[in-house]
Design goal:
Distance between the termini: 30 Å
CATH architecture: 3-Layer(aba) Sandwich
Number of helices: 8
Bound molecules: pyridoxal-5'-phosphate
Largest sheet: 9 strands, mixed
Number of strands: 9
Structural class: alpha/beta
Number of domains: 1
Helix content: 25-40%
CATH superfamily: Ribokinase
Radius of gyration: 17 Å
Order of helices and strands: EHEEHEHEHEHHEEEHH
Strand content: 15-25%
Shape: globular
Length: 263
């Protein structure tokens, strides 16, 4: 009997269930894949913002990931909130031990409400330790400026050149934060733009949209779907989750990642 592809997730816990590991598990399960979960941090948050977080001890993360990887056949690794340089270091060790597993990085630098989730030292560590081992990263424009140490006056091409220097293979530059009428997401391979994906701009704000995108993309890559189709399917799935999002708290809406399930 053939088994489901499994994805190893390194993510933080968001107790609202909107973002972080719960978003990953829901998005990965929705594509018929199995999610395995190594928590990097526990956060205190509501649907408005993150108020506090505490990191999991990095050696524990290393041991958990090694135990899973020793036991199971992992088809993709999805990385979300890292929390600390020590955790970036631990995950770097894992990536070096498993160079053939594709890595999908959602560079979680700030919460939707604005709280910082990464220091400048952690941003350096992402550039030096994680991006060189990454197949595809999914920054929004704000995250891309920060990673590439650019500002809004720099054009997309310059930002992509800077990101590509880290060694990352593909960049999906998401356009929800850009000042355009429609939302345009651009997929790059190195500095070459492979494809642009267009979506209607939705009026609301969402808690966990980036996690939904990167985790579903990890699942499609785990299913060995080629990068352009995997990106298209992950963007379609995420857009549908947002269209069906629900107002479960007083702040941002929570994507409905099970919109496809029977009511
Ligand atoms: N992961 C965790 C644990 C978070 O707390 C957050 C934001 O608060 C995110 C990821 C990123 O969320 P989003 O997908 O809304 O960018």
């Amino acid at each position: 009997m053939s088994s489901k592809p499994a994805v190893l997730c390194f993510s933080g816990l968001d107790p609202t269930g909107g973002a972080g590991i719960q978003a990953d598990i829901e998005a990965i399960n929705s594509q018929g894949c199995h999610a395995t979960a190594v928590l990097t941090a526990l956060t205190v948050q509501d649907t408005h913002n993150v108020h506090h977080f505490e990191c999991v001890e990095s050696q524990l993360i290393l041991r958990q990931a090694r135990a899973v990887l020793h036991d199971m056949n992992i088809s993709a690794i999805k990385i979300g909130m890292l929390g600390s340089v020590a955790i970036a270091d631990a995950i770097h060790c894992i990536l070096r031990e498993h160079p053939l597993i594709p890595v999908i990085l959602d560079p979680v630098l700030a919460a939707g409400g604005g709280s910082s989730l990464a220091t400048s030292h952690l941003i350096d560590a992402i550039n030096k330790l994680i991006l060189p081992h990454t197949c595809i990263t999914t920054p929004n424009t704000i995250e891309a400026y920060k990673l590439a140490d650019c500002n809004e006056t720099d054009n997309d091409q310059y930002i992509i050149e800077q990101l590509t220097k880290t060694g990352v293979k593909y960049v999906l530059l998401t356009g929800t934060h850009a000042n355009t009428l429609e939302v345009e997401h651009h997929l790059y391979c190195g500095t070459t733009r492979l494809q642009t994906f267009h979506y209607k701009r939705l009026p609301d704000e969402y808690h966990g949209s980036g996690c939904t995108l990167a985790a579903s993309l990890a699942a499609f890559i785990a299913k060995k779907i080629d990068i352009i189709d995997a990106t298209q399917q992950a963007l379609d799935y995420s857009y549908n989750s947002l269209i069906h999002a629900q107002s479960l708290g007083n702040g941002q809406l929570i994507p409905n990642r099970y919109y496809w399930a029977p009511k």
